[in-house]
Amino acid sequence: MDILVAFCKWLENTSWALAVSGAYELYPYLRLIHFTGLALFVGTTAVVDLRLLGWGRRREGADQLSAQLLTWNWIGLGVTILGGVLLFLGTASGYIINPAFQIKMLALLTVIALRVTIQRKVLAWGGTPNVPAVAKLIAGVELTLWIGMITAAVRIPNY
Asked: Taking the domains of the chain in order of start, what are their residue ranges?
């Protein structure tokens, strides 16, 4: 952990981090970028997961929804990461030791792995009248992790 904290302290002194941390008027816009990407990523993810669980729009299968939302889903993730990295840069050493931030990052990696799994399998799972139990389990776990990540994010103080 000491090496990671040292890296974060170095990161805080890079030109990008100094520019971000020195521009206080920029902070609300970085949060806006991060939250907009998050809303797009979580929203499109939740639509497919809820459909796999049997809720939501029944006119289309989860496979069709996933295909329609795939590009927006990954754009949302990219915008979320961009905003998150920019927010992280200025106070990296404070965030990295925060248990809520650590939980959030672990959950994010798990969600990305589940999202990739779902997107690979949804063509087979979502096109059938009876969605397999494993698909429902993964969708439920993914939604639960999002709730946990959002809760953890609320617990992360602004440094």
From this structure: 2-155
